[in-house]
Amino acid sequence: MRNRILWMVCLQLALLCFLAGCAVHEDTESDSGGFCLYFISSTGDSYEKVPYELKNKDDTLAAVTEIIHELSDSEQFNTDQYKAALQGVGLDSVEFDEGNVTIDFEEGYSKLSSLNEGMIRTAIVKSVLQLDKVESVTFSLNGASLLDQEGAPVGPMNDQSFILEDDEEDVYSGQQDVVLYYANEEGTQLIPYHTKINSKDNEPFEKIVIESLLKEPSAQDSQSEEKMISPLNEDLKVNQTQVLNNICYVDLNEEIENLVPGVKEEVTIYAMVDSLASINPIYQIQFTVNGEKRSTLNNVKNFDSLFSANLVLVTKPAKK
Questions:
Q1: Is 296 in a helix, a strand, or coil?
Q2: Which DSSP category does 256 fall into?
Q3: CA 117, CA 140: separation in Å to the nearest integer?
Q4: How many CB atoms lie within 10 A of CB 24?
């Protein structure tokens, strides 16, 4: 039988349990049996795992309700290191049916930026999927399917739906083959540069790839007779990246507006897009600037849309 529980009822029950006596939440290991909750870091660009001991271990729906309540507890879980993932986000209901948890958000959820929305969903999914009987999590908005940037239903999410820093050791271990796309000397086309990039602890691999474009290949390492130049402003910073449902969300600072002299805007954008799209499992890229979507970027329209690899600008390098 399909289980359903209204969020307000869940919240009241959870509060009763809380007042009856909650486990102490610490940043160090406890008697939680390895279970932890995922909170968003105070800087808003990563996650903090906090050990937690579930009270409702034998009832999956009650456990999910408990997790949602804890992720919403801004008074208890706002610290210098992290904040409640669901702070200020309203929920209508939580359901559990045949291995899938369905969480229905209120209308205000649709006003979140794509990056923040993705981080909230990821924090919930990573927390809830630790329950033995939960195989996936589905999200809805006022009873209707939650839609992605292209208007398609997001669908059930599981461990394969995203990559976090603690997942990257498995996905991006050691050296990875990457194709970086640099601008030609005229700034009108892209030149592919095949290389290997080392992953680093506690740094998203996608960020490393973009930052690699800031450094031009040496003449000795160059694979083309034509000079390769960096397509990115040297002051460009990558604030944050996240991979979710094969989409790489990239938040840049305002220096993306300042072009390298002589380099066309579309060359700058697709240098990042094509380089990131060379990484499995990234298919599309969504850009924001200081956390906000921009419909235009200087002369580029639809900068808030999803970008896919575009090899029209790519020229075949003249071999040495």
A1: strand
A2: G
A3: 13
A4: 9
pLDDT for residue 81 is more than 90: no
CA distances from 281 to 147, 156, 248 (A): 20, 18, 9
Report yes or no: 49 and 37 within 8 Å, Cβ to Cβ: yes
102 closest CA partner among 125, 80, 83: 125
Q: Are 99 and 64 in contact (CB under 8 A)?
A: no
Lowest mean per-residue pLDDT among 20-29, 109-118, 178-187: 20-29
The overall longest dimension of the chain from CA atoms, in Å, is 74
CA distance 93 to 68: 11
Top pLDDT among 38 and 320 is at: 38
Q: How far is it, in rounded angstroms, from Cα 62 to Cα 14?
A: 9
The answer to whether the Cα torsion of 151, 152, 158, 163 is positive or negative is: negative
Beta strands in 146-189 (DSSP E): 162-163, 175-183
DSSP characters over 105-153? E-GGGGGS-HHHHHHHHHHHHHHHTTSTT--EEEEEETTEEPB-TTS-B
Q: What does the buried/exposed string (b/e) look like for 213-227 if buried means 16 or more CB atoms within 10 Å of the residue's CB?
A: beebbeeeebbbebe
Lowest mean pLDDT among 53-57, 188-192, 204-208, 220-224: 220-224
Average pLDDT estimate for 269-292: 92
CA atoms within a 13 Å half-sphere pointing along the CA-CB vector of 176: 22
- Which of these, 271, 269, 267, 260, lies nearest to 296 by C-alpha position? 269
**What torsion do the CA atoms of 116, 117, 121, 124 make, to the nearest 10 degrees?**
50
Q: Looking at the predicted structure, is the pLDDT value of residue 205 above 50? A: yes
Does the structure show a pLDDT above 60 at 309? yes
| Residue partners of 54: CB distance under 8 A and separation at least 6 | 32, 35, 63, 66, 67
Residue 254 has φ and ψ, to the nearest 5°, of -65, -10
